[in-house]
Amino acid sequence: MSFWEYLGNRHQQLLTDAYQHASAVFQCMVVATLIGVVIGVVTYRSEWAGSLATTATSTILTIPSLAMIGLLIPIVGLGVPPTVIALTLYGLLPIVRNSIVGLRGVDPSLVDAAKGIGMSRLARLLRVELPLAWPPILTGIRVSTQMLMGIAAIAAYASGPGLGNEIFRGIGSLGSKNALNQVLAGTLGIIVLALLFDAAYVLLGRLTIPRGIRV
C-alpha cells in the first residue's frame, strides 16, 4: 500500500489523532503560559530570584521526556494526566526566561512616568510593563509550542492522546507493510501542526503588537 493510499484509508483516525495532539499542546501551553508569566512577574525584580526560576525550569527540561512520563505513571496513572503534567513542565523554561528578560527590558522612564501620573503597581504592571514585554513573551510561547509538538508524541508511551500513537504503532510493527507509512504519517502530521501553530502565532503577533514595537 502506498503512503497516499494509507492516508486515504486512515484519514479519519489520523484527523482524530491530530485534533487530540493539537488540543493537548494548546491546553498545556495555556497553562504553561499562565504559570510562566506569573513566575516571571514574581521574580524579575530580583537577580537571584530570576536566576533561581530560570535554573529550576531549565533543570526540568534536562529530564528525558520518556523518563519524565515514566516517573509520572505510578503517581497519576496512564493517559491524559501524565501527558498534561509533563508538557506543562517542559513548556515553562522559554516562557519564564523571556518573561523575565522582557520585563527587565522595559524602559524605567516609562514606568516612572506611569508612577508619576498615579498608577498603582498593579496598574503599571498590567498597562505598561506586560504590554511592552509581550513581544519577547510571545517569542517564548512560540518556542515552547514547537518543543511541545515533538515531546507530545512521547505521550503515546503512557497511552496519551495524539499522533505519537501512530508513530509508536509503526515502530512496534517494524517489518510490516504499513509500518513506515504509520511513522511517516505521524511525523508529517506533527510537522504540519507545528507550522500551523507558528503561523497562528505570527498572526497573533501582528494583531497584538503595535507596529512601532515590532520595528
Question: Topology of this protein?
Answer:
Elements: H1 3-43, H2 47-61, H3 65-76, H4 80-90, H5 92-104, H6 108-116, H7 121-151, H8 164-172, H9 179-208, H10 211-214
Query: Strand-residue fraction?
Result: under 5%
Average pLDDT confidence is: 89
Q: What is the helical fraction, as a range of percent?
A: over 70%
Shape: elongated
Order of helices and strands: HHHHHHHHHH
Tally of helical segments: 10
Q: In angstroms, what is the radius of gyration?
A: 20 Å
Low-confidence stretches: none
Q: How many strand elements?
A: 0
The largest β sheet comes out as: none
The assigned structural class equals: mainly alpha
Kindly report how far apart the N and C termini lie.
51 Å
Short description:
The protein is mainly alpha-helical and 215 residues long. It is built from ten helices and no strands.
Can you offer a commentary on this structure?
The model has no long low-confidence stretch (mean pLDDT 89). The chain has helices spanning 3-43, 47-61, 65-76, 80-90, 92-104, 108-116, 121-151, 164-172, 179-208, 211-214. Helices cover 81% and strands 0% of the residues. It contains ten helices and no strands. Helix 3 packs across helix 4 (80-90). With 215 residues, it is mainly alpha-helical. Belongs to the binding-protein-dependent transport system permease family. Residues 18-201 form the ABC transmembrane type-1 domain. Its main location: membrane.
